[in-house]
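Request: How about a record?
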Amino acid sequence: MKRYFGFQTGVKLVFSATMWTLILMGVVSAHADNSGAALSAAVENSERTAAFGLRDSARHPVQTLAFFDVQPQHHVVEIWPGSGWYTEILAPYLMTQGRFYAAHFPVHSSVSYFNKSRAKYGDKLAANPDAYRGVEITAFYPPTSESVAPAASVDRVLTFRNVHNWLKAGYAPAAFTEFYRALKPGGVLGVVEHRAPVGTSIEDMISSGYMTEAKVIALAETAGFKVLASSEINANPRDNALHPAGVWSLPPSLRLGERDREKYVAIGESDRMTLTFIKPDLSARE
């Protein structure tokens, strides 16, 4: 069973029956704008990179984090934060009351890109210690035994446009198992991912960078999660997910260079699913 709840910005959210139960129990907030002032302040903070802010209209950080019900006192893990787009928001938002784990690439990886990205991220934090005070860098790479956070210790695990990478690498199931391990019972996994049309094959998901909602949900449920809710906050109806260079044809990658550049800029960033999953509290069962 699914029900609809009117979000204050006019975005339609789809809540499962489980979500409504949790709202009544007080596990999650019925109002997506809870702590909205603090969240808006974090998005508007002057320390953010100017180029990052230009992407807000496509990525909807205030609405997305409100949908994930990220509260200032939460312990939160961001998986593979890259160059720190969401870190610039989450670090100040969680600095005073909460805790922020940035689960980046491992140190001394055999993958050159991993090493460069991790070093650049470390340099970014070191260059502005006041802005990133309290950020704890951990590692996420399922072929190793490194963990994103202590077991059953965090309220939220968040990942933005990463699941297709894990599917291609062959460790998507292990990724969701690790997220389940790190979350407290009742904790929530928030996922934003490029959305493929229903029926897209695994091979096409891997080559295009787009995934079906059904595949993401199956990965989460296999790890033990239950679906909470979905949202169209990050939907883009202009994107049909059929491009010569996959999702990388679109901004910000624009991998095709000047070829049809105006066309892809007009489409904008990809059509994206926005999903939440809960780690059930098994101890509460009779």
Q: What stands out?
A: The radius of gyration is 18 Å. The chain has one domain: 27-235+271-284. The first helix runs from residue 17 to 25.
